[in-house]
Amino acid sequence: MSAMIVLLVGLVLMALGYFIYSKFIAEKIFRLDPDYRTPAHEFEDGIDFVPTNKFVLWGHHFTSVAGAAPIVGPAIAIIWGWAPAFAWVVLGTIFFAGVHDTGAIWASVRNKARSVGSLTGDVVGKRARSIFMIVIFLVLLMVNAVFAVVIARLMMNFPTAVVPVWGAIIVALIIGQCIYRRILSLPVVSIIGVVALYALILAGPSVPLQMPAEVMPGVTGNAAWIVLLFVYAAIASVLPVWVLLQPRDYINGLQLFVGLIILYGAIIVLNPTMVAPMYNNDVPAGTPSLVPLLFVTIACGAISGFHGLVSSGTTSKQLNREPDARFVGYFGAIGEGGLALAAILVASAGFASLADWQAMYSAFGQGGVTAFVEGGAYVIHNGLGVPEVTAATLLTVMAALFAGTTMDTGLRLQRYIFQEWGEIYNQQWMKKPLIATLLAVGTCMLLAFGAGADGSGGMLIWPLFGTTNQLLAGLTLLVITVMLVRLRRPMWYTLAPLCFLLLMTVIALIFQLRTFYEQGNWFLLGLDLVVLVASILVALECGASLKRHRAEVAAESKGV
C-alpha cells in the first residue's frame, strides 16, 4: 500500500470532519454564542485570565495537549498493523476528540472557567467530583513525572537537540514581549519565531551538549536533566501566561506545522510502501489483544482525558470569544490527529524492509519515539535529501518541545488542582499560587525519585496511564452530556463516545489485572483495582445522573 494514498485519505477525512461535522456540533449542539462574555474578559487579571487571539491560543492548546503521546501511542500500536491504528486515529479525531475538546472548553466557559473536575460537583454530584479530582490528580502526576523522563532521555540520547530545546525558551520570551506589547504584528512575529527555531535546529548538530553520565556521585546525567526540567516548569507555571506559556506554545505549534509539511512532503515525493502489515496476524509473543488495548494505547491522537484538563484548565481562561472554541478545540484535535497520522506513516513506511520493521517491533511496547525519529529521518533523507542527522535532530526537537509544553501546562494544571482543593475544603494556605506550585512539584519529584536516584520512578505506574486517561475522558463527556440534557439539547453526540470509552476502559482494566497478577506486580495490581472500581462507580453515577436529570426535564416540560 502506498503511504501517500494513506496520507491523503486521512487528511481529506479529517478536513471534512472539521468543515462539516465540527460546524454542526458548534452551531446545533453547543450553540456557541459570539455575544457571550467569556471568563477571560469577566475575570481578566493579566496572569491566568487573558483574552487571547484565537491563533495564539490554538498554539497553546494544541502543543499542550499534543506532547509526546500522539507520537508514542500510534508508533507502538502499529504492532497490530497500521490499518487499525489509522482507523482509530481518523475516526477518533473526528467523532470523539474534536467533540470532547470543544465541549470541555464550552462547559468550562459557561461555568466561569472552572475545571471539569470542580464543576462536576454541581453538574453530576459530589461523589463523582471526588472520583474525578483523584483521577485528574493521578493523570497529571503521571504526565508530569513521565514526560520529564522522556525529555531527559531524548537529550541524553540526542545531544544535538539540547541547544534547540533550551534555546526555544529564549525565543519564546522574546516573542511573548513582541506579541503582548504589540511591538510587531502577529504574522511578522510568527515568521521570526519559526525561522529562529529552525536556525537553532540547524545549529544543533554543530554544538552537541552531552550531559555527563554521572554529574556527581549518585547523581546521573538523566537525573540532573529531570531536576532542571522541574525547576524550569515550576518557574514557568507561576509566570503570567503571556510571558512564556502562550508564546512558547504558539511558536512550537507553528514549528510542528512546518515539520509536518516537511514530513508529509517527503512522503509524497518518496511515496514509500507501507512495509508494516495492514493487519498483523503474527504479533510477537506476549502482545495483548487488539481490542480493547488499541483504544487505550492510542489516547492522544484519538481522544484523551488530558485534553479536557487543558481545555477547562488554561484554555477556557484565555478564550476571547465563545465561537473560538471550535477552532481552538476541534482544530487542535485535528492537529494532534495529523501528528498521530504522521507517526503511523513513518513507523510503518520508514524502514527499508519488513524484516527491518519486525526487528524494531520484536515485542509489545517497542517502537515509540525511536521508531518515529528513525523512520521519519529515513523518509525525510530519502525524499528531500536532508542529511539524516539533521532530520533526526528536527524530529527529536519536535518530540522534546511538545513534551516540554505539555509538562509546562501540566504543572500549572496541577497547581490549579491544589488550589481548587483549597477552595473546596476551605484551606486558605493551599489556595496560594506559590504553595500550590511547591506541592505540585514536590509530588512529581517524589514519584520521579521515590523508586531510585535516576528519576524514572514515574515509569512504574505509566502502564496505567492509558486506562486512567480514558476514564478521565469519559468523566469529561459525562459532564458535557448532563449539561446538554439540562439544556434540552441532543445528547447522543457525546453519550455514544462516553459509553464506548467506559466499556473499553473497563475491559482493558480487567485484561491488565490478569497481566499484573501473572507478573506478580502487586503494586500495579492494587492501583488497577482502584481505577477499575472508579470506572464502575463512574458508570453507575453516569446512569443515575442522566436518569435524574432527564426526569427533571420531563417534569418541567409537563409543568410539574
Automatic annotation (TrEMBL):
Keywords for this protein: Cell membrane, Membrane, Transmembrane, Transmembrane helix
CstA N-terminal domain segment(s): 3-348, 365-508
Compartments in which it is found: Cell membrane
Any Gene Ontology biological process: cellular response to starvation
InterPro entries given in the database record: CstA (IPR051605), CstA_N (IPR003706)
A GO CC annotation given for this chain: plasma membrane
Record's bilayer topology term: Multi-pass membrane protein
Transmembrane segments: 6-26, 62-80, 86-109, 130-152, 158-176, 183-203, 223-245, 257-279, 291-310, 330-352, 391-413, 434-453, 459-485, 492-510, 522-540
Name used for this protein in its record: CstA N-terminal domain-containing protein
Organism expressing this protein natively: marine sediment metagenome
